[in-house]
Amino acid sequence: MFGLLGTRRFLPLFVTQALGAANDNLFKNALVVLALYRLAHTGPIIVALAGGVFILPYALFSATAGQIADKFEKSRLIRLVKLWELHLMVLATAGFLTGSITALMLVLFGLGIQATFFSPLKYGILPDLLGEQELIAGNGLIEAGTFLAILAGTIAGGALLLLPHGDAIVSAAGILVSVCGIIAAWFVPAVPAAAGNLKIGWNVWRETGGLIAAARSKKPVWLAILGISWFWAVGATLLAELPTIARDSLHAGGHVVTLLLACFSVGIGIGSISCAAILQGKISARFVPYAALGISLFTFDFAHAATLGGALHSVPAILDSWTGRRIMADLLLLAACGGVYSVPLYVILQEKSASSHRSRMIAANNVMNALAMTAAALLTAGLYAALPSAPLILAVTAIINLAVAIWIIVVLKILHE
């Protein structure tokens, strides 16, 4: 599978995607750190709003993004989207240097829109660039690269902003990463337009409803979308609880949170890359139910181990403790199961969608992912009223996920067809 990284038909897209994910999270975490450390009263409100501001465009504009991706040649659109990112980074520079939170929140919303338009392009173009036997490997590499880039961007965003003249350093880093992404995007091969005669509808609500209806009419596609959306709901819940577990259960600070995020990101990478070897290039969902069971098992054990944390207040304390190593192993393994779970579903979504509608089906997936993550956030907020403990919330999540795993075993046989 790593041979794909030496080919022009894959490497430029891989680099473009990874740099984009790194830049999004570099900016987002720099904004979060800025809000928390410099805006004592309004900072927590801004942090709470930031996730929603970035996700909202997926619900609003995915239908339009999918239509545009199907109608026009994708590599050219990728370059335009990356140029859009550069303009946003220039605006971000003005926001950081002037301390304008309004400008920075507008940039965050703009990055959400940019990501909304890029997603159906990157996933829609993969089947045009790769052979059927390469799709599992290609999607696995994309997933692994994305999560590792998210980790790198998250760490860099917070660390750079806290340096002397951190505002200027973060701004320069954002522009540099964006320019490198544009250069990579220029080498993505051209592919034929999937549906050149498509008429784009601009009524967002009507088109989004039609998009979901079209996805539901194709059972394998719809089941894959539901499975992926559940993955993002569980993942968002877990990642949202990590800082709280580090603070309240482990009595630790930011460095331990970074260690836990690193375990999760590396685990996703391992699981995603392993798919190619496990499935040997065959497009199949046969391991998805077992991966779902693994997510429940290791999430439950992680939640239990977190309650035994004691004084795991530093990275050395985590590494020197059996409980700490157990926590790391649980995170690594549940994330690896997540990679094995999600990659085949993405490939099924691509392969079972008609080439003329592929980007629109990916856009439908993005809408459902956004709704699932929003619902998970609301449910988690509700659970805090009854279960004021992050480990207990994760234990409940693991139990609910077990029910979903059983549902997958019973229902998703259609994905083998």
Radius of gyration using CA atoms only: 21 Å
Please identify which CATH superfamily of the largest domain we are dealing with: MFS general substrate transporter like domains
Indicate the structural class: mainly alpha
CATH architectural label of the largest domain: Up-down Bundle
- Give me the CATH fold name of the largest domain: Growth Hormone, Chain: A
Order of helices and strands: HHHHHHHHHHHHHH
Mean pLDDT across all amino acids: 89
Overall body shape: globular
Largest sheet: none
Quickly count the helices: 14
Report how far the terminal alpha carbons are from each other: 25 Å
Got a strand count? 0
Return the domain count.
2
CATH class value of the largest domain: Mainly Alpha
Tell me roughly what share of residues is in helical segments. over 70%
Strand content: under 5%
How is the quaternary structure best described?
single chain
- Poorly predicted spans: none
Features:
14 helices; Growth Hormone, Chain: A; 2 domains; 417 residues; 0% strand; mainly alpha
Task: Give a short summary of the structure.
This protein has 14 helices and no strands.
Describe this structure in words.
The chain has helices at residues 11-38, 43-71, 74-98, 101-129, 135-161, 166-185, 204-216, 219-249, 254-279, 288-307, 315-320, 322-352, 358-386, 390-411. It folds into 2 domains: 1-185, Growth Hormone, Chain: A (Up-down Bundle); 218-417, MFS general substrate transporter like domains (Growth Hormone, Chain: A, Up-down Bundle), CATH 1.20.1250.20. By secondary structure, the protein is mainly α.
